[in-house]
């Protein structure tokens, strides 16, 4: 931190974000700056006839409206599922006479070529939501800007393009090899994009509260430059971590941020589950396990939005981002649907500017179909368009719809949080019934039986997100380390693969995600990755949440009764991969892409 | 061509495409192969409950249907605009019980995470259209595969990622510098993506029939390796070239292809206007100019689809692609709307496989909103979904809609071709009235006037596409080479900039695209780029096509009456760019991104 920044801060004014352009990749640096603002005047001449742009005329679009039956924001109540709340018909008209492009939602603009930063009315709404509601207390002068993305996976690929020079062994010098810091257990797709670029994936250990600042300091302070450049990028999820379900507190975030600032590390914060934080988790967990409810102090409320729901949530890294080194990825995938392929990036303006340049010559913009329908949903029609649509439809039901607005949007998120939290509680309650194997062995010579209690499953209820992260204590299995039908004794990976396959057989029919999918490198995969399973309580139908959790527990217990090494080997062999046990991990890692997790 | 391929061919069997994997970039080579097919069995177990995937349940998507008022394919008749043909209401239901994923169109699948290759029913339809209707006579064994794209700009960026190692002066060896062959005048966005990657842009001269095979041979045979690696990629548009409006014949394609094959060049063929070929252009041009209609032989019909319209069109490079070196880019931008951000790539299967790997960790898939609505439009609902929707709506009008089907899709394209062809004819007729400046100077001492005829505009009517490409003969302007108010005499770039700005003033109010935007390098820009303007007959409203063309002609003629160097300088100064005349070209090149041309 330089002294002028300190001076500004002591005067009560926020300093501007740091200039981080030395972190840009060579390709990113070479992208042309935009001359658009100056040239824009030519398009804005009143009455100008445009023969310059190579655009088809909107007359020739075969869609005259886009419409939808859309939920009201009250559909899912925070306390109980109110699925009876009806839907509303929404429609995007072909053309609107609204002169303000920030307000005009119609197909003549939404289905035409548009701005890389986003469809103006939606961009304007997202910017307002981001700056005034989601992160009202930004930490540097002027605060962050936003740009729409085609979902966070694409945003992440573009952020790597922005900051990373691809590296090839034997061609590039090892001192230039870029690195990516991440959690020990990590969502896999970002690594699948980083690895082909030649990046060092650098795991950092966690404790119960999330990534450990001491472990991070240790990695960076003792960096061995024979491995490559000291990493200048971190990828992390902090609010409902995938796969571990942790929520990283603001206090912990400050500690991690201080280390990142010291070592000039940029933080890519991917938060698809930020609004899925579960206040009941600690109490319900204690109740389920017969413990006394932990006497934790209520978290300090640091946000001051008009929405108690939002104020109750742990905030983003952006809250402590005095340097402008945080790039936050948001998505509509979990709040609207994954098929949107729509999200946004939040970062200091000079990073957003480069992001837009990359977008202009690749994806150009998210699809106008989804941008206009989501805009219509959350903003609603302008009064003029509303009346026109009412005239054009027989029923005229649309005339009363005025969009969810910010209140409705926050209400929708709160309803989703309630629904997912209830699913989580039901799944964890079901699993808790099967944590231990209890065996009573009676002996003929005595009047009493001997009760042995073996812990099969070890886990903490998730504090956020969509996942339960379990450690299966394979070490307690009767066949642990027993001779196998192959040359080696039965190890953890073998038992883990066998149980995964056992669970997919009748009568269990449950598919879980193995820890190997989330192990950030082969050592972690071999060392302890096999011990973990991730269970998602979001994907299945409501009815199946209970059924599948129970079947899972039954399956685990039944698996502990297998006494034959041959049966274990048969299960392992049934895994649909030709090249044997080891590549299960690789195979599962690849599955992640398809699972969309 | 190796001998085994020759042997196969002489036996009547097509040889397989060449292995081109040595052309893959280092990053592309390092991407993992997909293990999906093997792992897929796990998901396909009947009755399996999926706790593995990190997907939200479709119950929580706020969209219960997506709907639209959509045109019938007969809306635009090939002979006259039949805009009275009504629209049809279409709807994508929340869930369909259709078991075949290739046929199921519903929001539970379309708005969920999906396949990178594309939404199965739409992908299946596009594959059929591509292989059976658009390119029925593919030239290598098995023929090409397809993958959906987020529009051709994104497809092009991904194809560069697939084949090009980014290159940086001073870091990488000059012998490794990648090159991109292109037409002398070229659509600019692909260059905006290639240049930051450090590519050599290598223009090839054209004649009236398109890119010259001799010029191409000359460039490649005499390649100066001190400039970089001999280019292994070509970018070109051959059917309604942007900006020149040329259609490159099959005969010429064969000649260009032979050179590419000889020098191992991959061809990226970008064809957004392939169906906009104008059979009336030659005859109408002759009529307009009072020439005899050219007695050209009708083109040999080489395609054998059930559609006379398609058979009449000049085919793609894919028709002669015996090696599998053609990557064709298609888009729904001009047939449905640019805001779709939806298209597809066609190439040999091993290239498509790499393309899908790149997609999986970036865009993942085009938006399900547009994929499902376009699928619904062209395929139509399954009978079961149709009945369900009819029950759910009061009017039940949707029950009769069965999708455009292939017949309707081809009919829609033919209708668009007719509509754009009529616009083109009207614009060219209007411009033809102003090609010459005719001046009658009468002298007092004689009874007759002297008529002088100066050619101001030189052009050929476009044979396809959306653009009229004009050379303005600035050399005939009274102020050509005259002393200016600055140090230098008035040159072409000055006059061209001045005319561009003059046309934006009242009473003309016409904005045209300058040739500098399409000059493939600074030398071409300085040498002759300034002499050209591109006029688009597609973007403006129908009424304005005539008005804007007339205003353009009037403006050009009026500009020839300007006698004051000061007035010219004032016009140049009015160009909204701070850094002077030279950067007009840069500024305009950047405008291309925004114009979406």
Automatic annotation (TrEMBL), chains A, B:
Keywords: Aminotransferase, Pyridoxal phosphate, Transferase
InterPro entries named in the record: Aminotransferase_I/II_large, Class-I_PLP-dep_aminotransf, PyrdxlP-dep_Trfase, PyrdxlP-dep_Trfase_major
Annotated Aminotransferase class I/classII large domain residues: 198-385
GO terms assigned for molecular function: pyridoxal phosphate binding; transaminase activity
Cofactor requirement: pyridoxal 5'-phosphate
Residue segments, region Disordered: 1-22, 73-92
Full protein name: Aromatic amino acid aminotransferase 1
